[in-house]
Q: What sequence folds into this?
């Protein structure tokens, strides 16, 4: 079992914001690639577990454990986190300009 570890840097510089529906709900999201541990630690704000060989990530929130697999998105909306498949994400969200 591995652990994600934080790094230095401004994650907002590379962070994209997304919208869903009308009226627009602004969210922040990062796609879990299986290798972007530092980016996720900065985004989530805590360490998480990575289970090998599936590369499933698990991080704890006040509502319980959140799981995600490579290719899925970690979404932050109104201070809460969830994960979403890439297909659902592309159908539901668009980049805010």
A:
């Amino acid at each position: 079992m591995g652990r994600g570890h934080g790094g230095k840097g401004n994650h907002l510089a590379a962070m994209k914001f997304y919208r869903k529906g009308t009226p627009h709900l602004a969210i922040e999201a990062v796609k879990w690639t299986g290798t972007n541990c530092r980016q996720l630690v900065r985004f989530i704000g805590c360490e998480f577990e990575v289970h090998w060989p599936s590369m499933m990530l698990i991080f704890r929130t006040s509502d319980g454990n959140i799981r995600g697999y490579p290719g899925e998105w970690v979404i932050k909306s109104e201070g809460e986190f969830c994960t979403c498949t890439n297909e659902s994400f592309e159908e539901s969200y668009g980049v805010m300009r």
